[in-house]
Amino acid sequence: MIGDETITVLNENTYILPNSNYASSQNILGAPSSPPFSFGGSNRGHTYRYSSSYGGKFDITSQFNNRHEIKAGIQYRIDNLNERIFSILYDDNTYRIPTIAPENASPSHSYYSENAVFFSGYIQDKLEYQSFIMNVGLRYDSFDPQSTHIDSL
C-alpha cells in the first residue's frame, strides 16, 4: 500500500498502481533503444548553444599615377561558439535524486567554448599600359581554431 492506494501485483514483473499520476522509472537505467519516444514520462535532455562573431575590415584604393592603381586591405574576425549538452540523470538505483554529471566527465554532459580567429591581408597593383593590363598581388589568409582539431581533413 502507498498512501491511500493499494498495489495489485500480477506477477514478479508486473503490478498495477491505480489512479497514479506518474510513471515509475524503477527499471529505467539508460536511454531506450527507440529514440523517437520520451522514456519515463519526460525528455531529460537539454541543449544550449550560443555563437557570436566580431570583426573588422579595412580596404584602401589609390590611383598612384596613370599606370598604377594600388589596393590594400586587412580583415580580422573572431568567432565564438558556446555549446552545452546534458541529460538529467535519474533512476531508482544509481541516481535517486535528479543529477547533472560534471561537464566533460561523462557522455551525458559535454561543454564546448572556443574561439576561432580569422585573419587576411592583401596588396594588389593594377598595371595599365597601352597594349596590356596586368593585375599582380599578394594575399595572406590565416585561420587559428585555438582548439583541438584534425589537421588533414
Kindly summarize this structure in a few lines:
The protein has 153 residues and is mainly β. The chain has strands at residues 8-11, 14-16, 45-63, 68-87, 109-128, 133-144.
Give the overall silhouette: rod-shaped
- Number of beta-strand segments: 6
Structural class: mainly beta
Cα Rg = 31 Å
Total helical elements: 0
Distance between the termini: 62 Å
List keywords for this structure.
four-stranded antiparallel beta sheet, mainly beta, 153 residues
What do you see in this structure?
It is rod-shaped, with a radius of gyration of 31 Å. The protein has a domain of 105 residues. The chain is built from no helices and six strands. The chain starts with 7 loop residues before the first strand and ends in a 9-residue tail after the last strand. Helix content is 0%, strand content 51%. The chain is mainly β.
